[in-house]
Amino acid sequence: MNSLLNVILTTDFAFSVLRVTTPILFAALGALISNRAGIINIGMEGIMLVSALAGVIVSAYTQSAWVGLLGAVLSGTLIAGILAFFTLKFKTHIILGGVAINMFASGGTVFILYLLSGDKGSSTSLASKVLPSIEIPLLRDIPVLGPILSGHHILTYFSILSVLVVYYLLNRTPLGLRIRSVGENPHAAQSVGVSVVRIQYSALLLSGFFASLGGAYMSMGYLSLFTRDMIAGRGWIAIAAESMGRSTTVGTALTSLLFGAADALSNALQVLKIPAELIATLPYVATVIGLIIYAVSETRKKNRKLKTTAK
Amino acid sequence: MANALLEMRGITKVYPNGVVANKDVEFSLREGEIHAIAGENGAGKSTLMKIMFGMESPSEGELYIRGEQVKLQSPQDAIDRGIGMVHQHFMLVPSFTVAENMVLGMEPRKGVGFNVGEAVRLTEATARKYNLAVNAKAKVEDLSVGMKQKVEILKALVRGAKILILDEPTAVLTPQETEELFRELQQLKEQGHTIVFISHKLKEVKAICDRITIMRGGRSEGVFETREVTEQEISRLMVGRDVVLKYDKSTIPHGKPVLTVDRLNVSDSQGKALLSEISFSVREGQIVGIAGVEGNGQTQLIEALTGGLRGVTGSGSVRVKGEEIRELDILDIRNLGVSYIPEDRMRQGSAGEASIADNLISTRYRQKDMNKGPFLHGSKIAALASALVEEFKVRCSGPQQPIGMLSGGNMQKVVVARECSTNPQLLIAEQPTRGVDIGAAQFIHQKLLELRSGNCATLLVSADLNEILELSDSLLVMYEGQIVAYFDHPSAVSEEELGLYMLGINRQDKEQTGRAVNHV
């Protein structure tokens, strides 16, 4: 037990929580935007995977990490656009579309990886670039806080900034107002001339944008290369975080942090004599428990509502 | 009609499924009037209004605004031409504030952001201008129904509506809220707005409307100055039957009461009374009909009888063969021998994707003889299904055909077959022949009469006067959640007389309606 506390109560651990939260947080914010527009994007995993690979490839060929990031974001957003096109134009079921994206990404990335590097497992032979980490001048000298908050990857800071951006977008802009109205009562939105389809397009593209930032972080920050299926369920955890955060920006950010902490814990505990496989299940166990708590409270709320509105 | 603000000429609307909702309808609106469109459910009011608001385009006919012919392609077109609509089901976003709902789609901006302050200011200014007090910062989900309606009216006004269409605006309001709405409408009229008021409540039409267009069966029965026609005349024009059906009904003695409803009261979550002091009984071998304009408590009454009101506050008792059923679940109620033909055969009465056979056994698949060990007994089910399909003359390719592919009449026959073939002791039939062709309707009527001969007690709720007057042994009329009339020889009642009760112009005294309990 003592050794457990020794692991957790360190600035290193707190630092790593923020580090592993980053991709979850990006994807969760993406899931949040599309969910608020009433359209559930379960293709996060696939979008992240594609953008992670695109970041590596583009940065390797251009030798610029920033152009690589741009490539990652464009390809991830493009995948979301394809999903939107099939869902909104051809009325494919969004869940089927999302499953297709995920499966396509899982196989397709390996195929392209093999094509370009001759390796089916990882991109070690590609000289890809990594985005920088940033030391924050004054902050880093503060004891305890400094080592936790300073020295992170640039996208980690950007993910925190994104929480504010998404909050502002959803709550303080005309687009946000329309996104929320479309998600809550599409008839109301339509009756005042808001195009439901156009808003849902925007929301899906935005969800792809944020998910691909998470993907880029995975291969250009968290690791410095692409490996097969490297997202490892983070897209799904993000969807759970969004759900458990009750589709609010602040709630989503906090639950992402919670899942990030579970992830970090599983990393940290690997130094202890607990079977690694068991520890590796921790974030997923946290997800399941979180979803159960969420489902139970939602069901109760719904029942209460039904009772009061039943005529 | 040089001074017509809006005019519709020869409007005919045929829906793709062949239903003729409007037939050669003429409608003309004068500037500054309150004009009622009155008619029973299914008379074509809603379709006419949808055409006026650009939600549907007419199959034939023209629409003129200020003498200029226009084609409205979408509600946005109508809004741009100064037509606003207050829907019966409010088009509001519950979690938004009043101000946010007001400006949705035309949000004031400040830089890239949404200017909340300006939205609030605009809302308050509009509310002041039209003297409709609302709290701009309140969340819509916390508002009363009357308040929500005000927000809807303001929403239309802020978008520049000069013509306001209100679709049954009082259906959801309490009497106090209704009075307030009428005052507001009068004010709007004085400020030069023109109002189209869709309703089947004659008192209200008489109270605030200048003119009235009466619709029946998709046609216009004419337009009248409201003060020149009596409620009786309006009622006569609104209610009527087109074809008179006759059935040979044997007189059979009525047995013991199967269903007894005693002083049933139910209110909604806002405290508005939906059913008050309902008492009646249905006996063996008796068909009791309930007539009334839709929305006068029939739905709630049926819910109370079929397990749909569990856990809802109310008082009184509902007993089937002496057993109180208000807190029983649906299966327990069915096990008492109750069958139910629901009004909505698409959503409630059947599972569209499932086969005819599966739909037929959906109420009895638990029975021993339908099962073989843990599995369903395929051959027995097939035999039963084939027998029922034949007996009820369901036109289909076979019992394995998905029920959703059948025509409305045949689908309804399957529902009726299921409900009538389990030897019910009480059958609750809700609009059993709505929207089915005359042949299927007559077949279903015959089946109901056969059950009656077999001593089944039947409660028949219907808006179809033919059906209700010809089939019922006793007839109740519901108005505003109460029983307002009782007749023991329905076939001798004229539709004019019935109309007066259905529309709340007349009502019988307690002694007369009390006869519904013992039928003496």
UniProtKB/TrEMBL annotation, chain A:
CDD domains, sorted: TM_PBP1_transp_TpRbsC_like (cd06580)
Subcellular location: Cell membrane
Keywords: Cell membrane, Membrane, Transmembrane, Transmembrane helix
Membrane-spanning ranges: 13-32, 39-61, 67-88, 95-116, 154-170, 201-220, 278-297
Domain of life, per lineage: Bacteria
A Pfam entry, by short name: BPD_transp_2
InterPro entries in the cross-refs: ABC_transp_permease
Membrane topology: Multi-pass membrane protein
Main location: membrane
Protein name, entry field: ABC transporter permease
Automatic annotation (TrEMBL), chain B:
Residue spans crossing the bilayer: none
Keywords, sorted A to Z: ATP-binding, Nucleotide-binding
The keyword Transcription regulation belongs to this UniProt entry's keyword annotation: no
PROSITE patterns assigned to the protein according to its UniProt record, in alphabetical order: ABC_TRANSPORTER_1, ABC_TRANSPORTER_2
Listed InterPro entries: AAA+_ATPase, ABC_carbohydrate_import_ATPase, ABC_transporter-like_ATP-bd, ABC_transporter-like_CS, P-loop_NTPase
GO molecular function: ATP binding
Segments forming domain ABC transporter: 6-242, 259-505
Organism encoding this protein: Paenibacillus tritici
Taxonomic lineage: Bacteria, Bacillati, Bacillota, Bacilli, Bacillales
Protein name per UniProt: ABC transporter ATP-binding protein
Keyword check for Nucleotide-binding: yes
